[in-house]
């Protein structure tokens, strides 16, 4: 079965997901559903499998076992057109990975032209709109090296948005930034959440998780230990492992 059966099917659905690297079982049976427009923050200690889970959701890693659905399409179906599905999923990493030899606008137009086959004028228009959205219209002709880390990350987000994704995945988008630059990036993510983007965000920013997330998922040792509202998971965690993790963040 490669299509979900109901129109209200979750935007992202992970069923019985396992991922091993050799003998190292990193994900040990993950079940997760994210509805359209929902913002889910994934928290947990280093090495708990957060990045691997995110990478399995767009098949940057191939699951060992289990199923992943995005927008009703099963990514883990061997017959799926994975490139077509991936176009619907934006991903933003800790490292921004902008092309240093291209201007900001060129960084945004290149993937639109290559992957979506947009013509030059359309790609430029979409680039300008998305730079405006992240507050960097005036940097259109700048090179990445002349921008702060926070500005570079906002360009990376705009580049992703220019592809028109249904879902955005963020893997510790502010972890490489100086503290004073974190706020501007979180503000852009907040705006996306308000606009109704479906988002899965691995983060250590507990204030953002509390204020923006509809749900918080705590992972440890390759399993989901707790999944609930921010008030439940951060405010009054039920599990000792969650309490221990949160106490070390303070
Ligand atoms: P987190 O993002 O929560 O810090 P990761 O998903 O990055 O955790 O990593 C979980 C475990 O998987 C770690 O033990 C890590 O060494 C291992 N791992 C991640 N990616 C690979 C890979 N490509 N090859 C081998 N081991 C990996
Ligand atoms: Mg990680």
TrEMBL record:
<comment type="similarity">
    <text>Belongs to the ABC transporter superfamily.</text>
</comment>
<feature type="domain" description="ABC transporter">
    <location>
        <begin position="12"/>
        <end position="246"/>
    </location>
</feature>
<dbReference type="GO" id="GO:0005524">
    <property type="term" value="F:ATP binding"/>
</dbReference>
<keyword id="KW-0547">Nucleotide-binding</keyword>
<dbReference type="InterPro" id="IPR030679">
    <property type="entry name" value="ABC_ATPase_HisP-typ"/>
</dbReference>
<protein>
    <submittedName>
        <fullName>Amino acid ABC transporter ATP-binding protein</fullName>
    </submittedName>
</protein>
<dbReference type="InterPro" id="IPR003593">
    <property type="entry name" value="AAA+_ATPase"/>
</dbReference>
<keyword id="KW-0029">Amino-acid transport</keyword>
<dbReference type="InterPro" id="IPR050086">
    <property type="entry name" value="MetN_ABC_transporter-like"/>
</dbReference>
<dbReference type="InterPro" id="IPR017871">
    <property type="entry name" value="ABC_transporter-like_CS"/>
</dbReference>
<keyword id="KW-0813">Transport</keyword>
<dbReference type="InterPro" id="IPR027417">
    <property type="entry name" value="P-loop_NTPase"/>
</dbReference>
<keyword id="KW-0067">ATP-binding</keyword>
<keyword id="KW-1003">Cell membrane</keyword>
<dbReference type="Pfam" id="PF00005">
    <property type="entry name" value="ABC_tran"/>
</dbReference>
<dbReference type="InterPro" id="IPR003439">
    <property type="entry name" value="ABC_transporter-like_ATP-bd"/>
</dbReference>
<keyword id="KW-0472">Membrane</keyword>
């Amino acid at each position: 079965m490669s299509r979900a059966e109901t129109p209200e099917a979750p935007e992202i659905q992970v069923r019985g997901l396992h991922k091993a690297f050799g003998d190292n079982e990193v994900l040990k049976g993950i079940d997760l559903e994210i509805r359209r427009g929902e913002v889910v923050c994934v928290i947990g200690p280093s090495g708990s499998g957060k990045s691997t889970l995110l990478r399995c959701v767009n098949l940057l890693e191939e699951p060992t076992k289990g199923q992943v659905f995005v927008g009703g399409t099963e990514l883990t179906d061997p017959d799926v057109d994975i490139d077509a599905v991936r176009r619907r999923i934006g991903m933003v990493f800790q490292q921004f990975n902008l092309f240093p030899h291209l201007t900001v606008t060129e960084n945004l137009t290149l993937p639109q032209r290559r992957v979506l086959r947009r013509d030059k004028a359309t790609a430029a228009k979409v680039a300008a709109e998305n730079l405006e959205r992240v507050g960097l219209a005036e940097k259109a002709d700048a090179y990445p090296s002349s921008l702060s880390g926070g500005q570079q990350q906002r360009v990376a987000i705009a580049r992703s948005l220019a592809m028109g994704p249904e879902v955005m995945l963020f893997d510790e988008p502010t972890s490489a930034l100086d503290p004073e630059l974190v706020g501007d990036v979180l503000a852009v993510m907040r705006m996306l959440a308000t606009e109704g983007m479906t988002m899965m965000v691995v983060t250590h920013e507990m204030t953002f998780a509390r204020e923006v997330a509809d749900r918080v998922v705590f992972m440890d040792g390759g399993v989901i230990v707790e999944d609930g509202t921010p008030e439940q998971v951060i405010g009054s965690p039920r599990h000792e492992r969650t309490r221990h993790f949160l106490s070390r963040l303070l």
